[in-house]
């Protein structure tokens, strides 16, 4: 494995990209010197997946997947469309149950937890899903305040401070009074990110965060994901098709195809992987092991059949 970035201690607040306020300082004693080290459930691995299989009807979506998501890392999960990436995130968060295998988060076996314990664990996971729209009749401030109002008893003054800090972290403190309809797509995604980190999660899961973004917004989001991860001491799982952007911030990449892990390693290791599956996806080749054509009978047979749809 390649060299890793030093990990930051978890600060009380996160400063924004380009902010004049200082970013959180890394633990002066260094990441290896924490007194808790070694006593953490699961050790260095926050999410441990073993032999995970999941079907939808007769379709095998994931097949015997093993993964280790290391604490403090940005771990990317990449692969062609329909290959089970979103399903994997839903399994990690306990929204779906596996047919076989186990998922441990911080030493807790997700699918054996009772309702209350699962709810508590989920609160430690921020999620930025593609469909995670903002509440359209609430302004930016209220959208970020929403999870805090729902899940905490914070007084108005503390709540206001926290919301402003989260908005500052995504560079949108000045946009607090805007309504979602007044935001660009990139701003809306950043507000959703501020909302996702409102409850100070340990981990954040991103499902295609760059989809539909222009290059500038995409660049901002890429930087933000890495900076938030490091400054807030998060662990990030990033599902994305955007090869270059993702490779630029990931510590580790899993490439999955047809529900199986076909490669894993640092971005450098994946870039050097010569397998046809990996190259087709990483280089965006239109045909290869993943066929352009959905399985069908020979074209001539189809065309010669008269009067059949
Ligand atoms: N609710 C559902 N009911 C039935 N099948 C589903 C459902 N959700 C997903 N699938 C199927 O499961 C497979 C994996 O879907 P999934 O969304 O996990 O893929 P993905 O890799 O995230 O795709 P994309 O990159 O296009 O978002 C697909 O074949 C999809 O059609």
TrEMBL record:
Residues 1-44 are annotated as: Disordered. Keywords: ATP-binding, Hydrolase, Nucleotide-binding, Transport. It is an enzyme of class 3 (hydrolase). Its EC number is 3.6.3.25. Residues 47-283 form the ABC transporter domain. InterPro entries: AAA+_ATPase, ABC_transporter-like_ATP-bd, ABC_transporter-like_CS, P-loop_NTPase. Pfam families: ABC_tran (PF00005). The keyword ATP-binding applies. One of its GO terms (molecular function) is ATP hydrolysis activity. This is Sulfate-transporting ATPase. It comes from Thiocapsa marina 5811. The lineage of its organism: Bacteria, Pseudomonadati, Pseudomonadota, Gammaproteobacteria, Chromatiales.
